Amino acid sequence: MRISHQFTTFSQVAKLIYLWSILPLALACTVNEATAEELTKTVGDSGQVVHILDEVVVYLKRPSKQPYVVSEITALEIEELGADTFADVLKYETGLVITDGKKNRSDLRIRAFTSQQPLLLLDGRPLNTGYMGSVDLSLLPVDLIEKVQVIKGPASVAYGANSLGGVINIITRTSAPEPLKVRFKSLFGDNAYRLLSAGVAGNWNDYHVCINAEELHRNGYTLSSDFIPTELENGDLRENSDHLRRGANLKIGHRLPNGGRYSLSLGHIWAEKGLPSSIYKPKYWRFTDWNRTTGTFTVGLPALETFTFRGNIFGNLYDDELITYRDRGYSSERIKSNSIMESRTFGGSAEAIGKPAESHELTFGIRGQQDHTRRQQNSGEPWEQYETETASLFVQDRYDITPGTSVTTGLGIYGFKKEDDRSWSAPVCPMASVAHELPSGYTFRLAGSRGVHFPSMHNLYSSTNGNPDLKPEEAWKIEASAEKTFTHNAQRFLHPELILFVNFTGNQIDKFPVTLDSSLYCNIRELETWGVEMNLSGSFSRCISGGLSLAAMKWEADELTIFNVPNLKLSAYLRFRTAYNTEIYTYWTYFGERDGDDESGGITAMPDYTVGNVNAEQPILSWLSVRVEVRNILDTYCEEEYGYPGPGRQFFAGLNMNQ
Predict the structure, then answer these.
(1) What is the pLDDT of residues 530-539, one digit of tens each?
(2) DSSP secondary structure letters along 58-74
(3) Could you say which DSSP state residue 431 is in?
């Protein structure tokens, strides 16, 4: 069976574009504009120009020097979003889809790739480890993040294997501009919601330290007033949707007199949460003990002639306990099964970057990791043990033909070894790109690469669906882009960006029915995906800035369709400040139609919907502000995955302190 997914009509999209094109003009008439001293500066290494206008800060993203498209989300943008978890940070990014479904897990999909296929890195340490190979974004704290880099198309071969679906690179804070900076954040809301976060950062001579602790709690979330109760869900407080997370992080760094540097990062997260059942089919699950302990030691050696060297070693310790109950009482006397998982991952990387010639920048290195998992399906049953090894060798050269034109080529050899194999599989993955910037400021890029993704332990060894004979998934990815910044003055600019992409994916892993009651993971899917992404951001006055983004996709898939991915996503945001220094930020996103999995093997068409959030922050003192927030303003009923409705309207308020 061959299924082709088509674009939806653009009537609703046109209305949203029109609304957001006139809204800034309307607000400009109601906001008093104060005179401002014009200053500019560059923030860190983020490539952003900051215009300081009487404490009004507007961010203008410079064209990236990367040979491929890299989107960046800064710490300030994360604060403006009011993000509680890393899932909130990425939810509105162009081309990305975040869904909460069967295991109350925030899964990431980039341009229709599966949730296992994007590579997530935290300060160079891969997060896609353990039995499943995916990452629950809802359990990652955000307060230590300095910036997030998002690569959706072809990427550097230096990222190594398993970056088939893109790369999310999280960079945490390294220091504070002052000798000591204290941060405190609190947010309280419906259903005993509370978010408490405290951190200290500072520099002492050549040392820098960042410490952060956080707690997130809620008794659950209330569904939209439009929800129609079912036999399994009464429509008030979502059944079994409580959540508790506590965590702490430490980062210590030292810069040596000879230019070298090293840092140590340690973190621990503990969580307990309910897993809401489908509103059509019961499942009574709870994570009663969820632990993640991580550590990374990073070293940067001083330059040796024309090359610099850097590397890291890391460890991830993952443990969790998933209990299945017989009914919604969730009583210890009614436990059906108790599954325990223990995963250990150790690895590291080393690379050299330098300029052997004036017009060449050469990068080469190695990455490797070893994954161990012990799993007990139920108490009293034998423990199952699995092991895999992954390694990547890469070399990449950027050749600057002219000051405005560069060509980048690279080659990666990615190896994978299962515990029962005597030899490694080692596919070869090339990449190439060309970037050209005209004197007028227009920047054009064209890039292509081949990537692979090795099967997870779950794909290989699951007692119900595992297949140890699986081949690596692979894809050819091609991306073309154009962008330019139009600057009127220090207060007004416009930055449009256009991206076209096409992906050819083969050997994609999915379940294939073997009998009426069983299925097996197989390399059965061939997928072609192509689409367009458009981003428009700008500053309209001293006090108003905003943006609009659109992602539209079309695909053809053999055998199976793609679930939970909208064919159209449109986002718009508006940021402005009043004469009383009240900062107001509102964000709206339209999600188009998509196919849902009805859990019985059928395909259900899921309707489109629009969700809007707004928050406002008012300074009380120079170091203290109060924040109020409303999420899902319209109380829209929506299901990101079929049978799993999201929260209705929610209200929050809290205090922020920066001293």
Answers:
(1) 999 999 999 9
(2) EEEEPPP-SSS--EEEE
(3) E
**Bridge partner residues of 145 (DSSP):** 172
Q: Element (H or E) spanning 608, and its range? A: none
Paired with 500 in beta bridges are 480, 532
Instruction: Quote helix, strand, coil % in the chain, to nearest 5.
Output: 5, 60, 35
The answer, yes or no, to whether residue 135 has pLDDT greater than 70, is yes
Establish how many alpha carbons lie within 13 A of residue 398's alpha carbon, considering only the half-sphere containing its beta carbon.
22
Nearest-angstrom CA–CA distance, 134 and 386: 17
Q: Angle at Cα 234 formed by Cα 233 and Cα 238, nearest 5°?
A: 65
The CA distance from 449 to 127, in Å, is 23
Query: Which residue from 338, 427, 344, 348 is spatially nearest to 386, judged by alpha carbons?
Result: 344
CA distance 416 to 409: 23
- Give the whole-angstrom CA distance, residue 82 versus residue 297: 31
* Pairing of β 384-402 and β 360-376: antiparallel
Categorize the per-residue pLDDT at 7 as very low, low, confident or very high, splitting at 50, 70 and 90: very low
- Region of 117 (left: φ > 0; alpha: ψ -120 to 50; beta: rest) is alpha
Rg (CA), the chain: 25
Element containing residue 35 per DSSP (H, E): none
DSSP secondary structure letters along 610-654? EEEEEEEEEEEETTEEEEEEEESTT----EEETTEE-B--EEEEE
CA–centroid distance for 123 within its chain: 14
* pLDDT over 60 at 578, yes or no: yes
Q: Which residues pair with 420 in a beta bridge?
A: none
Query: 434 with 197: CB under 8 angstroms?
Result: no
Nearest in space to 345 (alpha carbons), one of 162, 158, 164: 162
Euclidean distance between CA atoms 528 and 503, whole angstroms: 6
> pLDDT digit string (tens) for 251-290?
999 988 888 889 999 999 999 999 999 998 899 999 999 9
For residue 215, the cross-strand partners are 196, 246
Nearest Cα to Cα of residue 275 among 262, 288, 266:
288
What amino acid is encoded at 501 in this protein?
Answer: F
- Choose among 506, 546, 550, 560: nearest CA to 528: 506
CB 164, CB 436: distance < 8 Å = no
Place of tokens 């090795």: 454
The predicted model scores a pTM of 0.87
Query: What separation, in Å, do the N-terminal and C-terminal C-alpha atoms of the chain show?
Result: 61
CA distance 284 to 274: 9
Q: Which of 398, 479, 475 is nearest to 445 (CA)?
A: 479
Token pair for residue 601?
Answer: 């093997």
Rounded to whole angstroms, the Cα distance separating 303 from 204 reads 24
Contact between residue 169 and residue 156 where contact means Cβ atoms under 8 Å apart: no
pLDDT, residue 302, reads: 79
- Count CB-CB contacts under 10 A for residue 281: 11
From residue 428, give the alpha-carbon distance in Å to each of 170, 292, 392: 27, 33, 10
* DSSP-derived pairing of the beta strands 167-172 and 119-122: parallel
